[in-house]
User: What shape does this take?
Amino acid sequence: MRAVVMHAPGDVRVEEVEPPTIVEPTDAIIRVTATCICGSDLWPYRGLERLRRPMRMGHEYVGIVEELGAEVRDLRVGDLVVGSFVASDNTCEICRAGFQSRCAHQVMMGSIGTQSDRARIPLADGTLVKVPGDPTPEQLRSLLAASDVLGTGWFAAVAAQAGPGRTVAVVGDGAVGLLAILAAERLGAERIIAMSRHPDRQALARRFGATDIVEERGDEGVARIRELTGGYGAHSTVEAVGTQESMLQAIGATRPGGHVGFVGVSHGVELDGHDLFFATVSLLGGPAPVRRFLPELIDLIMTDRIDPGVVFDLALPIEQAAEGYRAMDERRATKVLLTL
Amino acid sequence: MRAVVMHAPGDVRVEEVEPPTIVEPTDAIIRVTATCICGSDLWPYRGLERLRRPMRMGHEYVGIVEELGAEVRDLRVGDLVVGSFVASDNTCEICRAGFQSRCAHQVMMGSIGTQSDRARIPLADGTLVKVPGDPTPEQLRSLLAASDVLGTGWFAAVAAQAGPGRTVAVVGDGAVGLLAILAAERLGAERIIAMSRHPDRQALARRFGATDIVEERGDEGVARIRELTGGYGAHSTVEAVGTQESMLQAIGATRPGGHVGFVGVSHGVELDGHDLFFATVSLLGGPAPVRRFLPELIDLIMTDRIDPGVVFDLALPIEQAAEGYRAMDERRATKVLLTL
Assistant: This one.
């Protein structure tokens, strides 16, 4: 079968590999219906994360169950399913508290690779959520977004406690940041400030519910947010980049007693304890427990109440994966869908 | 009047100074009934915080109103009052959200100094809470604890979301850590693990509600907490020291999805963003909004449901303040009360 493999920074190839087989009795094998390239795939692509060996890529997926391990109980062959980028048992204490991305038995799907025709999904009963009905192409695209970027943006908005009466600031205008805006709007936020300099992303931000756009960054961006919030800062801030600048911008933009949800995978971030102490904000971040939100997100998508799939502004057959990586690296595309 | 002045590390003197006067129409002047030495006073005493000039000391106080500015409405001369170490208007958006320690018009009482016969209290209506009735000596001691260490420990336990069904770990066995145990117990925590190596402090921890004692520190301490919690870590962890080691110990001891309340004033703490990301814990800390909790704490004290004043294990007349500082520095005393 075909699979995307990264050999070195900037060197992405589509290769023939052995198809996956059931390893554990709790596994499922799915035929991947749609997959995509993640902003986090760009870290190794840009040489900012070390590649020790050629690496299978991809951790987002919608697929159809083809084979089930002997202990899988809740799924049937032929089911259309969505899962998150972390396989989780959904039964341990951590999962039950809603933090499935840190399940006691977690398996990172990135270590398996879903930019491929088929994928093995560990802990299938805990990981996969069945999609009811027969999605339209637009719904299918949105279900794929739910697998990571929507679920991650949603978690960020929840972690930042976006809700009625709250002003939410969003740092980062990639797919996750944009979908955090959609989430904040659905969660009832009063005002949503998108920090973005790109006209097309600003347009998408407004479509998803942003009420204000701030183009300034760093200290100037923080000053502008304070100006827009009576000098206090935002109640809720989403950080969806992962750099030192974006993290300090997010914390600085938040009022004392406010909440920061940070989901950009931290690269080189160092937080000064003294500054954090006197910021007096709540900080919650990490790999998003997308599984917590999947049933609700699938329902919102299948009833056409949200359309997160519009973040995909380029669709390519998997053979052209290399061009997809280039397009995202050069910011010609926000999010690239790969068809199979 | 008499006031404690720090001239240099290790050099604390009691001097005659000018008594305070009303500066703003929202001020009150109180005659200090009881004051004390704070763990945070030891940072400059030990040379770990720079002293630019001789500094008036103290930010904890119980007192009697002697004089009121023209705009103070809710207090009367003769009222017995408690306030926190931050004067706050209690009306701005930040105060109303319960973060009075970061009030838009905050004044740090440490910049005024309450280890003295009298003190000026800015924003008196917002800052001071009247004590009903006539406290016993034990209650008076406890009211003084409410001014900072109890209120700070209480905030730490609330920030760590201590409550029913939760296992709470407390890093730090100073007065704040010990009173965070008392708070966790009152908030209904199921299990409270005190991290302490000192037999007398362990005894006080148990008196306040600790169910387990862990003597190990650092990675060993973290391993022990995990062992005691089914491998998961505590739901709620209080950090009440402020060093790199204690902060990492607190974060490491907390399960994914858990909460860390940190109230030790950070000295030299640097948090790695990547580690924090993958810890996936909520972090909330800072100068405690003691004012939020004062009415409830005063009620608990005046009805003898809590006795936080037992953390004072040494009481000295203010003339012997230097000996009080020495006793705390050498850990011969947990918390020193100064009588006037």
In short: The mean pLDDT of chain A is 97. Chain A is about 30% helix and 25% strand. The interface with chain B takes residues 93-94, 97-99, 101-102, 104, 159, 230-232, 242, 244, 247, 255-257, 262, 265-274, 276-287, 289 of chain A (CB under 8 Å).
